[in-house]
Amino acid sequence: MSYEQEKQVAIEAALTAAKLCEQVRQEQVTEAMEKSDKSPVTVADLGSQAVICRALAMAFPDDLVVGEEDASQLRQPEMADQLNRVSHYVKSVVGDATPDQVLDWIDRGNSQIGGRYWTLDPIDGTKGFLRQDQYAVALALVELGEVKLGVLVCPALPVSPDQPDGEKGVLFVAVRGQGATMVPISGGEPQPIQVTKADSQEAMRFVESVESGHGDHSRQDAVAKAVGITTPSLRMDSQAKYGAVASGRASLYLRLPSPKSPDYREKIWDHAAGTIVVEEAGGRVTDMYGKALNFSLGAKLSDNQGVIVSNGVIHDTVLDALRETASV
Ligand SMILES: Nc1ncnc2c1ncn2[C@@H]1O[C@H](COP(=O)(O)O)[C@@H](OP(=O)(O)O)[C@H]1O
Ligand SMILES: [Mg+2]
C-alpha cells in the first residue's frame, strides 16, 4: 500500500492543528488546566485533538483514533468558558464548529487500539509548549502493530540547525518503505533525510528531555560518556528529539526511566510517529534492553522500558554500555 491518501490527510490535519497551537501561543493564553494525573493540558491540546480527529473522521470514518486527550473535563458546566475558547480556536482554523461538535471530535480520539488505528499526541511536550520551547504535533498510523505512517510537526524547531535564531517550523513525514522527509512548515519541496552515519566523536551529540522527571539524566550522561560522547546533551522537549536524530542533528536520543517513576510505561502517542521517522531515515529504535517497541498492546508500551533512538551505527554499543552502567 502506498498510504498516499492517509499521508495527505495526516499532513494537512497536523499542519492545521499546529497553526491553532501557534495562534494560542502567540495570543499568550497558554495557562494550563490540570488533568487527573496532574499533568498540564491547555486549550491548544484540546483544540488540536479536535481538529485532527475531525479530519480523520471525514476521510476515514471507520478508523480508530487513540489520542492523548479526552473531553470529560471540558464537558463539566463550570468549564463552559474553556470550552468556548477551545471552540473559538477550532473555528478559526476549520470554519464553523459548535461546542458540541468540538466535544465529540475530541472524544473520537478515545478508542482502544485495534488492527488498524491512528495514535495522536495533539501537543507532545505540553510543558515545552507552556515554556515557549519545543513541542510537536504527532500523528501515526499503526497496522497490526507496525507503524506505517508518521507525521511530526515541530513548529519551534529551527529549519537550519546552524541558524538557531533563523526560520522555525519543520514537518517530518515517513511512510514505511518510502523513506523519511523534512520540509519547512512554510512550504517547499520535502527533502529526504538520513541519520548521521559517522560514528566519530564530532558527529556524536545526544538529545534528551528537558524535564528531569521524564528520564534519568545522570545515567543518560554516564551512558553517553561510555559510548564516547563528550559534548553536553542537547535538551529538547517532545518528539522533536526524534526529528533531530532522523535529520542528523544528533546521533542518539536517550530516555531511561526516571528514578522518580521507575515503573513508568511510555505512551504509544509519545513514540509512534517519531519511531517511523527515525527508522525510515536509517536509524534504529528499541527499548533499553534492545527490544522493539510493541505498539499492539494498548495505549501504553507495557512490554518496554526506556527508549533508545540512534543512528543505528552506535546502537549495540549503547545497549552494551547500558548493561554495564546497570551493574555498577
Ligand atoms: N515519568 C515519566 N517518564 C517518561 N515520560 C513521561 C513521564 N511522565 C510523563 N511523560 C511523558 O513525557 C512526554 C513529554 O516528553 P518530553 O519530556 O520528551 O518532552 C509527555 O507528553 P505530553 O507533553 O504530550 O503530555 C508525557 O506523556
Ligand atoms: Mg506526549
Task: Give structural notes.
It comes from Coleofasciculus chthonoplastes PCC 7420. The chain has helices at residues 4-26, 43-59, 80-94, 99-107, 126-130, 217-226, 240-246, 272-280, 315-326, and strands at 33-34, 40-41, 64-67, 116-124, 136-143, 146-158, 168-175, 179-184, 191-192, 206-208, 234-235, 252-255, 284-286, 307-310. It contains 9 helices and 14 strands. It is an alpha+beta fold and 328 residues long. The radius of gyration is 19 Å and the shape is globular. The strands form 3 sheets. It has a 7-stranded mixed beta sheet with strand order 3-4-5-6-7-8-9, with helices on both faces. The mean pLDDT is 94. A hairpin with a 5-residue loop joins strand 1 and strand 2 (40-41). It binds adenosine-3'-5'-diphosphate and magnesium ion (MG). The site of adenosine-3'-5'-diphosphate has 18 residues, from strand 4 and helix 5.
Radius of gyration of CA atoms, rounded to a whole number: 19 Å
Distance between the termini: 48 Å
What percent of residues are in strands? 15-25%
CATH topology of the largest domain: Fructose-1,6-Bisphosphatase, Chain A, domain 1
- Estimate the mean pLDDT confidence: 94
Helix-strand sequence: HEEHEHHEHEEEEEEHEHEHEEH
Could you describe the largest sheet, including whether it forms a barrel?
Answer: 7 strands, mixed
How many β-strand runs? 14
Name the structural class. alpha+beta
CATH uppermost class of the largest domain: Alpha Beta
Q: How are the strands of the largest sheet arranged? A: 3-4-5-6-7-8-9
- Helix segment tally: 9
Spell out which ligands are present: adenosine-3'-5'-diphosphate, magnesium ion
Low-confidence stretches: none
